Amino acid sequence: MENLFNLTGKVAVVTGASSGLGADAALAYAKAGADVALLARRVEKLEAVKEEIEKTGRKVIAVGCDVTKEESVKEAMQTVLDTFGHIDILLNNAGVAVRGGVDSMSVEDWDKSFDTNVKGIFLASKYVIPQMKERGYGKIVNIASVNAIIADKQDMFIRHSYNASKSAVLGLTKGMACSYARYGITVNAVGPALFESEMTSGTLFKSEQFLNGYNAVNPAGRPGNRGELNGTVLYLSSDASSYVQGQFIVVDGGGALV
User: What's an example of a GO molecular-function annotation for this chain (predicted)?
Assistant: First the structure.
């Protein structure tokens, strides 16, 4: 049977690829046969990810990019196109989680969430979609969050700008999916729950009280393990999902069910 998850000959761009879920996904793309462009602000941290991907034998480049700045994104995508000639897959993974409720957070923190989590997807897609339209093919995967559809009342987990920005990602995903399906481009979103990453290891994973509470209400009884998001990302990035459009797949151990 044909391997529908085979990405040989494809070029994947991963934003926020310097650590965590982005780094894991980039390596998964390479293992599936794709060449990979790693984008992040911290170029020095991309080097370790680049070295791991080079071990797979795939071609990989590390490109400095601030997804909140249009010129930075434009230049980064042009570098990718100059290197590989085309882009087949865009994983919009760059994101931030700013704590605070609307009664206490600053306007700056609110804007930071939307600039990275929503504007970043807009800018990256803006400079990738035109060549996808020309070629009649493209796979765009936007990393949202389970917190796009649920919220938490625990003080340490109140992140209203995060909830709002990740919900906005779902609206943007649906709009893009409807507009670009005619060009052979699929656009879908993934909603991870709690995974250990650079973003969470120094905060949520340090709180025994929080983890005990999370595990008690989550049907799986635990957070996500490293690599458990890769299957969903690969599915939506491959021809296995050729007729899947504008969908939101939650990867949360069943947490959104309770």
Answer: quinone binding
